[in-house]
């Protein structure tokens, strides 16, 4: 193949906020798959907030990315050389692959994507990791009940938009925090949230929440953390459940973030706060994907995607997550599917 | 009865740390019980950290005490006028009564105490509310498993000393934080804790904990909060359970206490933090008291009491809780039992 393979590596560890210098783009030969490995041409690449953690040197739940090493993420691609991987040329697959035009992977690391079921990009969004994260975090951790008030932050994002809809389906009153007028309209008009709060134009999160959730908060799904979460904690009801999914407002902090101590509140409210990782629910991924797919097909679950064109713009798409530039799932479109 | 009844009322709400001026002692006539009420002569009065919260005006899980109104707490006393209450004169009873030499209460608010089972003072400690708090917080919230490392703060106190022993009985390695050399000796020599850490002579709680709990912390029972808790959170293992029972280090804060934000840790560790109140387990109090009594009788569960003599010294006994002056349960001995 004459075309070069563009791929991104971690140029250096960011100190605080990452920027364009965090990433280095290289042009190399298209890799040769080993026997049992497929060669995949990238169609869509997912950028996600959790990747910020992998840029740090410190130990976390996932291995840190090496400086000079590849960036990896969810990819939907087309098998261009099946090579004994168990797939066939032309198959659409998804897996955790490099940020690149082409990548290789053992067949066991890839899952098939059925293009007839839903647009293939949804395998990275509502029917992929973000959708499953919302599914388990809402149903197993935050557990909204009929009549409950459910609050979600990052509500217009890939995870929050699904979490809020699942809470609605469970019979809860749903309040979402999002960062623009357009996002609030998306929540209220397209997703059926009861109230959207535009935190970008609100000085007093607590007062806004008292208006939006006059009966207090029974279940809270947190993607953001920081001052909005401080406000939500003041409104928790007795026996409230708090699911900690993400804390994007803190990921770029250069110093250990501080805030009000919340543990006394937990005693008074007998509240439970629980962090979770979607990977811990792996044995139930099939159930989640099946249910989410069913609800999407039936029109009960809406989704939106923000698509950045071109692998070369993947860093900007990633950095935009921290500026709230996306509505719904942020994707990078890398290649066109062959027809 | 010619003797006056000494009783304490809340003189004013403390601003930060309470002091002697928070309390006003009055001398009044011994109250006359209404029909169905017993007149009780106080033998022991319990002072407990949670009472600090009731001195505040703000709404909490319990009604605030009124300025000029009585202070109340756990009492063990002798019925001196049964008056149709369902008890008999001379019965030993316990209930939530005024800080006074004499108090009245409906029979339905009193529980009998069997003086042949254990010293009657234990109805306010290991066999009373503190013991039950440790029982449910350890077994139902922190849930130590065999081989786990269990950490408890306020470890030499009425609740912590029982919690640590219950965790030992469950097969966990037990580490306790306490505030003096004498207390650490009590933990290690009398209670069988694996390690006691004297926080009064330790600059670096985290380093001390890394030594004491080299395999990390699986279950944490917190009575204290603040910087010790910050250190414990850095050592949590995956799937750790944290039971928030009390936060005595924060109760006298004049401003909203702040500290490091802990929610990112909860994601990485998939940890659960849960506040609880013993009152929510009321339907199971009998089970708890029966089991605790059995273990005390068998010598499996040790307890200690710090007894301050004289109702007039009840304020000092209460204030001493915040200085860590007690080992085990802090009681005030108000009267002698008639033989």
UniProtKB/TrEMBL annotation, chains A, B:
Region described as Disordered: spans on this chain: 1-35
Domain Enoyl reductase (ER): 16-332
Oxidoreductase is among the record's keywords: yes
UniProt KW keywords: Oxidoreductase
Family annotation (SMART domains): PKS_ER (SM00829)
Keyword Oxidoreductase in record: yes
Annotated Basic and acidic residues bias: 1-28
InterPro entries: ADH-like_C (IPR013149), ADH_N_2 (IPR041694), ER (IPR020843), GroES-like_sf (IPR011032), MDR_fam (IPR045010), NAD(P)-bd_dom_sf (IPR036291)
Superkingdom of the organism of origin: Archaea
Name of the featured protein: NADP-dependent oxidoreductase
Organism: Natronoglomus mannanivorans
Taxonomic lineage of the native organism: Archaea, Methanobacteriati, Methanobacteriota, Stenosarchaea group, Halobacteria
